[in-house]
Write a structure and sequence with these properties.
Layout (H helix, E strand, L loop, with lengths): L11 E5 L3 E3 L3 E8 L7 E8 L7 E5 L2 E5 L3 E5 L7 E7 L8 E12 L2 E13 L12
Parallel strand pairs: 2-10
Antiparallel strand pairs: 1-3, 3-8, 4-7, 4-9, 5-6, 5-8, 9-10
Length: 136
Amino acid sequence: MYEEFCMDVKEISLKLDKNEVKAGEIVRGKIHISFKGRFDTIVINSQIEDSSDIFTFIEIDEKKTNYQYARISILKSELKNSDIEFTVTTNHIPINLSVNAKFRVSLIQEHKEIASDIAYLSILKKVDHKSCNKSL
């Protein structure tokens, strides 16, 4: 899953538990902060390629929420420790077989980004195998 973080010197790391998801499925993410300097806020951005659809944040650090925006900010004072877990979902249905989505997490100090990381996944179109024409 996302339990193993890279052993490099990243100041902030973002991992998702899936590389692919279909509309309505849940995606879990984990952020690890190793930055030792000052920062005010962590910002999580999500973007679905060629779409204005969004991911809905449904849980952050075991707190239920229904945050229906592409960007969420978490104040440093709200953090329990150096790890943040979140759960999101989307109802986006790709026009083609799949579409790319991106999550970006940033550390912000006095309105300036000081560190970031990016994770990608694909949103797959649900295929109804019953309606596929299998005649030769």
